Amino acid sequence: MSSTQEKNDLEQASHSTNERPDYHIISRFFIPSEFNLTSTLELLLSYQTVLQADINLARLFEFPLASDHKAAGLASLFTSTEPCVLGIEEISDASISWADVVRSPLYDAELQGNGTYHVRIQKGNALLELSKVDHDFIGTKIPRQLVDPHSYLSDLVSEITATQSTFEHITSWQEIIVQLSIAAKDLLANLTERVEILKEKHSALEAHTGNQKDAGVKIWGHDTYGYIYSDEINAAFSSFLDYPVALVYKGPEPRVVQGNGSPDRVGRVQTINFPDEFPVLIASDAPLKELNTRLISNGVDPITIERFRPNIIVRGEKPWIEDLWKLVRIKATPSKDWCDDAPQEVEQEPLFMDIVTRCGRCQVPNVDPDSAVKHKKQPWDTLVSYRRVDAGLKYKPCFGMMGMPRKEGVVEVGMRFEVLEETTEHRYIM
Known about the structure:
Elements: H1 3-13, H2 24-45, H3 47-52, H4 57-60, H5 66-72, E1 84-88, H6 98-103, E2 107-111, E3 117-121, E4 126-130, H7 132-139, H8 142-147, H9 153-209, E5 213-219, E6 222-228, H10 231-241, E7 248-250, E8 255-256, H11 263-266, E9 271-272, E10 280-284, H12 285-297, E11 312-314, E12 325-331, E13 351-360, H13 380-386, E14 398-405, E15 416-422
Parallel strand pairs: 10-11
Antiparallel strand pairs: 1-4, 2-3, 3-4, 5-6, 6-7, 8-9, 10-14, 12-13, 12-15, 13-14
């Protein structure tokens, strides 16, 4: 994708929130809920009509009704088991029964020359032919009373129960709608703020890089995208390092974690910018102390944890126990007794992190980060002598563990670090 295309895409995504897209897809999502609400409302507002139309709340909720039981045996009172249907103008989902005739609010009868009656009923807008006996029997209102829920105490109780339940649910819907409206308003504000931040970031990035995109950015052989800053900015870095270098800003294309952190292994897609392979490196000070003991015995000065460039440093007691970590939790502690630097307030949610693999080390820890002087052998030689412990990293020693947070969170000095799950199955996968 060209930088011009990316710019156009971002500008289109950053349009003012006053410009509304076509919401017909979103509207279709709400149609079933709107139908349920309006149907229930119609039942409540038109109760008498609803009863006559063979529908009421109790029947809608599938309550057993005495009137329905009577309706099932209504045919025995007429001259035929089913009414004679001359035609149906609208598609009906079932045949016409005598209960449909009796309950129909539309009963338009016309006497025919042969003494029968042509009757139009509501269901399917069907046209029926009834004998004079059946027509006169319907005229007595007796069949209507037999199938009318108002005629039975149990049916009325069922309808009261259904109405009360509907009222309770509508009340809860009102509360949910209020909460949903508040949440949607807050989300809209947050998204609008995010759009403005992205627009500002894009403007600053364009000013410093001119959107010059280099597809040749490589991290350990893996291609990714970045925006190269201008020569004016890069000149300061090149001068200090006495070597031509360029500052690069990660482009918008996601760089998905692979290997031990691939989606099929951790069950989610997680992206990174320019780290080697994983978002977080955790190290414990206990193995560092153990390593320094070996270095001192070999006549080498002890080193600091900065040599291994961890994001999070854990105060440990037993060295190398981190090899077993699988799931950890980082959270604020309510007490400062165990650490002077512990945060005072406990507000943020705990941060859960999957520990996916050990960290195989190269010889960068041989370089003193303060002086940039590289030791020819240490601590590499010492680590190699006893820390080649991962079958997937045959020729590399291990120090530290790679973590993948399950969501964004706050990490502060003094927080409590808890190991929730352990495993003996860690094996590095390229």
